[in-house]
């Protein structure tokens, strides 16, 4: 399975990174619709598209307004945006309020099911994350592979979500900043480097890829990977347009 990390930054786009958007083109699945959503059009392989939102903060939903362009040259039979009902209602009411965006959005919305079947014999489950106004993490399982997506939360060994990601082959986890900015991260409901690496080790995942990086950080070295790798050796920093095979 191929995962495309189309947007790997947090809060707002920078010269180096667009905001959260991950894509599994083989099965027509997108995780979050941040400012990198426009890149989806270059990788469409299916006639349908299912977009799963972690929450409704702007850096994770603004790309829904780009769907008209995404579908301009490649019309899709169906686009469904899945999420928490309260967050989906907020998207409809506020992001697509006529004074802000006076064109009907080209998608249907769907409340998250407890378990949802995916292409290639897979299934998707979700779990709550601790973040201001609430967020959702996702786990995707196939018979021979698995991954989890955890964004916008404070990593901690005693966090409830750790059990939900246990043993996945690939963990894509937010890491907004290094350990010296822990107070800022806590204020914003985000994660620092050491706790994320500790969670990966405790959950016995196969591979850790860090996303949702602080846009104000040095784009070439925003995180101290050497520190992370002393805790969990198989740690990588995502960059925009990175492809991960798992």
SSE layout:
Blueprint (H helix, E strand, L loop, with lengths): L1 E6 L13 E4 L4 E3 L16 E5 L5 H4 L5 H4 L7 E6 L1 H11 L12 E4 L3 E4 L3 E8 L5 E8 L2 E6 L19 E5 L7 H7 L4 H10 L5 E4 L13 H7 L3 E3 L4 E4 L1
Parallel strand pairs: 3-4, 4-5, 5-6, 10-11, 11-12, 12-13
Antiparallel strand pairs: 1-2, 1-14, 2-3, 7-8, 8-9, 9-10
Helix pairs in contact: 5-6
Please tell me about this protein's structure.
With 246 residues, the chain is an alpha/beta fold. The protein has one domain (2-245): Ribonuclease Z/Hydroxyacylglutathione hydrolase-like (Metallo-beta-lactamase, Chain A), CATH 3.60.15.10. The protein has helices spanning 58-61, 67-70, 85-95, 182-188, 193-202, 225-231; strands at 2-7, 21-24, 29-31, 48-52, 78-83, 108-111, 115-118, 122-129, 135-142, 145-150, 170-174, 208-211, 235-237, 242-245. The model has no long low-confidence stretch (mean pLDDT 96).
Order of helices and strands: EEEEHHEHEEEEEEHHEHEE
Figure out the total of helices.
Answer: 6
Q: Could you tell me the mean pLDDT?
A: 96
Q: Which percent range fits the helix content?
A: 10-25%
Q: What is the CATH class?
A: Alpha Beta
Return residue spans where pLDDT drops below 50 for at least 5 consecutive residues.
none
Strand content: 25-35%
Separation of the first and last Cα atoms: 6 Å
The CATH topology annotation reads as Metallo-beta-lactamase, Chain A
- This entry's quaternary arrangement is single chain
Shape: globular
From the coordinates shown, what is the CATH architecture?
Answer: 4-Layer Sandwich
């Amino acid at each position: 399975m191929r995962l495309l990390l189309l947007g790997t930054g947090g809060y707002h786009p920078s010269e180096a990174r667009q905001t959260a958007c991950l894509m599994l083109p083989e099965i027509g699945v997108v995780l979050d619709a941040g400012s990198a959503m426009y890149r989806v059009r270059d990788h469409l392989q299916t006639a349908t598209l299912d977009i799963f939102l972690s929450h409704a903060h702007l850096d994770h939903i603004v790309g829904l307004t780009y769907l008209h362009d995404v579908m301009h040259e490649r019309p899709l039979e169906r686009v469904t945006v899945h999420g928490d009902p309260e967050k989906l209602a907020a998207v409809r009411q506020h992001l697509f309020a006529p004074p802000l965006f006076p064109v009907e959005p080209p998608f249907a919305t769907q409340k998250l099911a407890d378990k949802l079947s995916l292409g290639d014999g897979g299934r998707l489950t979700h779990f709550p994350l601790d973040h201001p106004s609430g967020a959702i993490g996702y786990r995707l399982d196939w018979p021979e592979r698995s991954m989890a997506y955890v964004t916008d939360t404070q990593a901690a060994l005693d966090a409830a979500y750790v059990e939900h990601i246990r043993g996945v082959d690939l963990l894509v986890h937010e890491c907004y900043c290094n350990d010296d900015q822990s107070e800022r991260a806590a204020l914003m409901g985000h994660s620092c480097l050491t706790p994320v690496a500790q969670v990966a080790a405790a959950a016995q995942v196969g591979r850790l890829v860090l996303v949702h990086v602080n846009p104000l950080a040095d784009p070439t070295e925003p995180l101290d990977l050497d520190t992370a790798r002393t805790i969990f050796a198989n740690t990588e920093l995502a960059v925009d347009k990175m492809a991960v095979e798992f």
